[in-house]
């Protein structure tokens, strides 16, 4: 498992393209018949991917966690961005369609991931944070997430936000998670941008068409940098950083956070003319 340490707002403006990508871009977590994680020191959030094709994949612990099992002191949110899948948690099975979200709380001892059809496998994005309290395991479909449409065609940011794990949705110790789908013709996410120094965030871009890319913007509002991001790649956003993107086509992305609170609306907005 790869481990990423934190970078301060003073160091980031000095980074060249490769160093920025080494620190903030998560490139290869989605591999057939594997579960892969990157462990970040930003609120100790782990970012993972799994594509069960021919095997049922078991969530195993890692030496770095020094725990008997993965969720001994952690919780996890799992969103399926592929074909129909199955999740089993401590003996209870759940069917999970594309864009469904499963939450497994602290002390869930056994968790497996499988696909309904190897020809169209489930693709699971995994986000895990430390948990000091146990909350019930729960499945949400995208309809359960009470979608909200924001932005407009005129500003090329017309998009639908699905909130799954947050203060008023699936209950968790600190994890917040959901996804955003851009409408055809819209390319901007999270513009106007914001920061929330109380929570780190990770974005995982998906449904980015072949040969298209998302230009992800990061950094302090007056000192921004960019990363070119491909389909099924994730970006770590430090709490002091904006996280916003503009695509060469429309796309979707999963956002997830951990930190001081679970209030999705707790954001400090940045005025567009203040961006540099
Ligand atoms: O499109 C958006 O705007 C978002 O999806 C914003 C994210 O949900 C976010 O950054 C939450 O803090
Ligand atoms: Zn945010």
UniProtKB/TrEMBL annotation:
**How does the cofactor bind to this protein, according to its record?**
Binds 1 zinc ion per subunit.
User: What reaction gets catalysed by this protein?
Assistant: 5-dehydro-4-deoxy-D-glucuronate = 3-deoxy-D-glycero-2,5-hexodiulosonate
The protein's matches in Pfam families, at most eight in alphabetical order, are given as: KduI
Q: Where, in this chain's numbering, is Zn(2+) bound?
A: 194, 196, 201, 243
* Known pathway: Glycan metabolism; pectin degradation; 2-dehydro-3-deoxy-D-gluconate from pectin: step 4/5
The molecular function terms in GO held by this entry are: 4-deoxy-L-threo-5-hexosulose-uronate ketol-isomerase activity; zinc ion binding
This chain's source organism reads Dyadobacter luticola
EC nos: 5.3.1.17
Family, as annotated: Belongs to the KduI family.
> Which InterPro entries has this protein been placed in?
KduI, KduI/IolB_isomerase, KduI_N, RmlC-like_jellyroll, RmlC_Cupin_sf
Q: For this UniProt record, give its keywords in alphabetical order, as a comma-separated list.
A: Isomerase, Metal-binding, Zinc
An example GO BP is:
D-glucuronate catabolic process
Q: Which cofactor does it need?
A: Zn(2+)
What's the top EC group for this one? Answer: isomerase
Q: What is the stated purpose of this protein?
A: Catalyzes the isomerization of 5-dehydro-4-deoxy-D-glucuronate to 3-deoxy-D-glycero-2,5-hexodiulosonate.
Q: What is this protein called?
A: 4-deoxy-L-threo-5-hexosulose-uronate ketol-isomerase
